[in-house]
């Protein structure tokens, strides 16, 4: 027969059945907020992808740097960056609206309208100042946005194709900032093309590195693909450096990116990182890229 003392001890040390499940359910219920609600995480005003800010700002700054060196920097190119950023924020709201249930889509209309109208205002001003030739780039951008929304509607927004499309749409601001008209690319120097290509290639590589650390964590196939991509990136930068298009800083950056592609995913089991920390690492790498663009260009070939 069990003594009262032992029985009481048993009851005190044993969790009540279902307690953990009820706690988890309550936590999920408290944490869940409707889109658009104050304090909600998916209200459409700000993207959850922390690295998106660097993807938009850094290529634009690289484009401004190249435009300044070419002697074509003007107010239109300066306005293009904020207009592009606002356009991306409108696109973010549009994707959330596309994914949301019909009863919740109205919550995203306001950020979509505010950001969309602001982007049109700044973009229109830039067109007036710089000339309508830039609108040819707009056709390519519209195709990328349409494809991204289509993939979102098909629930494929996390696919490799969707990631590459988003990268091209975001980083394209650097190309447009330097070459206001598509025909100007024909007179581009090797240094300019190599700098812009390396910038786009870096951000394309983040699709692989982020997947190996979050959604495809532990996947040997994705890890091999990420490492292989960064090996190719390093090889391309090395060739560009040998011919004098890129300087040593780009080579150092490419080596660091390859080392990160190998090291970061393999250490997550012992030192797990949050999504915010991963995003901040991407921002830091983007800053290094900007430094490389400033001090690491080659000649004018």
Question: Can you give a write-up of this model?
Answer:
This protein is mostly helical. The chain has helices at 4-13, 19-31, 52-70, 75-99, 109-130, 135-153, 160-178, 190-213, 220-242, 248-266, 275-295. Helix 8 (190-213) runs parallel beside helix 10.
Produce a short descriptive summary.
It contains eleven helices and no strands. With 301 residues, the protein is mainly alpha-helical.
From N to C, what is the helix and strand string?
HHHHHHHHHHH
Strand content: under 5%
Give the total of beta strands. 0
Summing up helix and strand content along with how strands pair, one would put the structural category as: mainly alpha
Mind describing the biggest β-sheet? Answer: none
Q: Which percent range fits the helix content?
A: over 70%
Task: Report Rg.
Answer: 24 Å
Write the layout of secondary structure elements.
Layout: H1 4-13, H2 19-31, H3 52-70, H4 75-99, H5 109-130, H6 135-153, H7 160-178, H8 190-213, H9 220-242, H10 248-266, H11 275-295
Helix pairs in contact: 3-4, 3-7, 3-8, 3-11, 4-5, 4-6, 4-7, 6-7, 7-8, 8-9, 8-10, 8-11, 9-10, 10-11
